[in-house]
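User: hey, got a sec? need HAD-IB family hydrolase folded
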Amino acid sequence: MAPRPTAAFFDLDKTIIAKSSTLAFSRPFQAGGLISRRAVLRSAYAQFVYLVGGADHDQMEKMRQFMSQLCAGWDVATVREIVAETLHNIVDPLVFDEAVSLIEEHRLAGRDVVIVSTSGTEVVGPIGEMLGADRVVATRMEIADGKYTGEIEYYAYAEEKARAIRELADLVGYDLEHSYAYSDSVTDVHMLEAVGHPHAVNPDRELRRIAASNGWPVLVFTKPVALRSRVPLPPARPTLAALAVGGVVAFGGVMWANARRRRLGA
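Assistant: Yep! Here you go:
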């Protein structure tokens, strides 16, 4: 009997990249006419709180409300175009070198790489493609007539991340007992508990305490790197439509399966 497949599940913000992936795009969104200078400054403040103090449940809830209200009325195509055009300039220098090495190690071991993030799919999907992730689970905003309504259709947060992982395991057949998970935040404890090999990365105070009490490894990532120097990247302006062609799977929230393996096997 062939062994069941395994996976490595990664939170995105402060685990793979050094800041909030969503807030990192505030200036490009301003340049594209989507938000005001006041909103950029507020995003910068939220980024500061997120990085210095860590974001607890209440702060994450405020950030969620802020971002959902902020994007109400935005044109979806414009957002995707801005992300595609600025992705490498914004995200490339923010990726932790240690995270890239870890992703490479899991690939060599034959594990799928899955990013599970509270940030929106418009940002997480292209970043996942850039990193070569096999699947992505992310928050999805409600869309009507090509514009965001300001409502959240699916929120990939806290216990929901763990539920999504278990549902994905049922769908794909992952052996979670032999799978791995990585996160920086106590809000992801349920996600970490869903696998047999949980790891705390740059943990906040509460997650560090829980990791110590459970004997979980604690990793410290400190070296942002230019991703272009580490892994082959797609063209400077990736086409998001190509992600859909690669295979979008509606699963709880938002998930896409990278077609990399199918292309290699063709």
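Quick note: The two ends are 25 Å apart (CA to CA). Let me know if you need anything else on HAD-IB family hydrolase.
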